[in-house]
C-alpha cells in the first residue's frame, strides 16, 4: 500500500510538473507574439495603427502602441527595455543619440520621409523676409541642421560646411540679412508661428496644426536623406516579431493611410 501511494504521489507530482511547464511555455510563446512600439502622438500613431491591424491579421502578432510627445523619451524607453521598437526618427538623429547617450540601438527597417518646411504667417515668400527677421528652429541637433542646410540652399545664409547635418547658427559664416535664430522644442514650433517671421516645422507637427507642406516657403524634397526608421535594440534587427512589424508597416495600406493623413507630406522610404 505504501508503494502504491508513493507511486501515485510521484505520478501526480510529475503530471503537475508537466502541466506547469506546459503553462510556462504557453505564456512564453504568448509573450513572444506581443511587442510594444513607440510612436509620436498624432497622425504617426494613426499610421502605425494600420500596421498593427496588418500584423495581427497576417502574422497573428499583437503590437501595442505607446505614444510620446517628445523626441528624447522613445529612445530612452527602447534602451531600457520598456519598448521593443520605436518609429519616429531618422537615421542622423538616431546616430546622434547613440553617440551622445551610448545607446546600443540599430535600424530594423525604414518608414517615411516626413519633410521639414519653413512656414510663415507674416510673409508670402522668403524674398519678403525683413532685415533681422526672427527664425525659429528645432532645438535638436539633426532637425536644426536640416533647417540650416535648407536656408543655405535657399541663399538666405552661408554655412561653413553645407554637408554638416548637425549645423547650428554658430556655423553661419555669411548672414547678409542679419537673420536672428531661436531654437525651440520641435513640438512647440507651431505655437510660436505668430511670434516669429519664419518657423521650420517637421511635418509630424505641422500637419496636426493645419499646416500643409505645399504652403511652406521652403520645403525639403523627396531626395532628403532624413528617412524615418524603425529602431530596435542591437541584436533584435532580425527578430521574427520585429521583421513582421517592418513588413506590416512597409505595406500599400500603410502608405495609403500616410498619404491621406499627411496630404503628400509622407514619402515612403522603402521603395
Automatic annotation (TrEMBL):
<protein>
    <recommendedName>
        <fullName>Lipoprotein</fullName>
    </recommendedName>
</protein>
<dbReference type="InterPro" id="IPR004872">
    <property type="entry name" value="Lipoprotein_NlpA"/>
</dbReference>
<keyword id="KW-0564">Palmitate</keyword>
<dbReference type="Pfam" id="PF03180">
    <property type="entry name" value="Lipoprotein_9"/>
</dbReference>
<comment type="similarity">
    <text>Belongs to the nlpA lipoprotein family.</text>
</comment>
<keyword id="KW-0449">Lipoprotein</keyword>
<keyword id="KW-0732">Signal</keyword>
<keyword id="KW-0472">Membrane</keyword>
Amino acid at each position: 500500500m505504501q508503494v502504491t501511494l508513493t507511486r501515485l504521489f510521484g505520478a501526480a507530482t510529475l503530471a503537475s510538473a508537466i502541466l506547469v511547464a506546459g503553462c510556462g511555455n504557453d505564456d512564453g510563446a504568448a509573450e513572444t507574439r506581443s511587442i510594444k512600439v513607440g510612436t509620436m502622438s498624432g497622425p504617426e500613431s494613426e499610421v502605425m495603427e494600420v500596421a498593427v491591424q496588418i500584423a495581427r491579421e497576417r502574422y497573428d502578432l499583437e503590437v501595442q502602441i505607446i505614444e510620446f510627445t517628445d523626441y528624447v523619451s522613445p529612445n530612452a524607453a527602447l534602451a531600457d527595455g520598456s519598448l521593443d521598437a520605436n518609429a519616429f526618427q531618422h537615421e542622423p538623429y538616431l546616430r546622434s543619440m547613440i553617440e551622445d547617450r551610448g545607446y546600443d540601438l540599430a535600424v530594423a527597417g525604414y518608414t517615411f520621409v516626413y519633410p521639414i518646411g519653413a512656414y510663415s504667417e507674416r510673409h508670402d515668400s522668403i524674398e519678403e523676409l525683413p532685415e533681422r527677421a526672427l527664425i525659429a528652429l528645432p532645438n535638436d541637433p539633426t532637425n536644426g541642421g536640416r533647417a540650416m542646410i535648407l536656408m543655405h540652399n535657399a541663399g538666405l545664409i552661408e554655412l561653413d560646411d553645407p554637408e554638416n547635418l548637425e549645423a547650428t547658427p554658430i556655423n553661419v559664416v555669411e548672414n547678409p540679412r542679419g537673420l536672428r535664430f531661436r531654437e525651440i522644442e520641435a513640438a512647440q514650433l507651431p505655437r510660436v508661428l505668430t511670434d516669429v517671421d519664419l518657423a521650420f516645422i517637421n511635418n509630424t507637427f505641422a500637419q496636426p496644426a493645419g499646416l500643409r507642406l505645399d504652403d511652406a516657403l521652403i520645403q525639403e524634397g523627396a531626395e532628403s536623406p532624413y528617412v524615418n526608421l524603425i529602431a530596435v535594440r542591437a541584436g533584435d534587427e532580425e527578430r521574427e516579431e520585429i521583421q513582421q512589424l517592418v513588413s506590416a508597416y512597409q505595406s500599400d495600406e500603410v502608405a495609403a493611410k500616410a498619404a491621406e493623413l499627411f496630404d503628400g507630406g509622407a514619402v515612403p522610404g522603402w521603395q
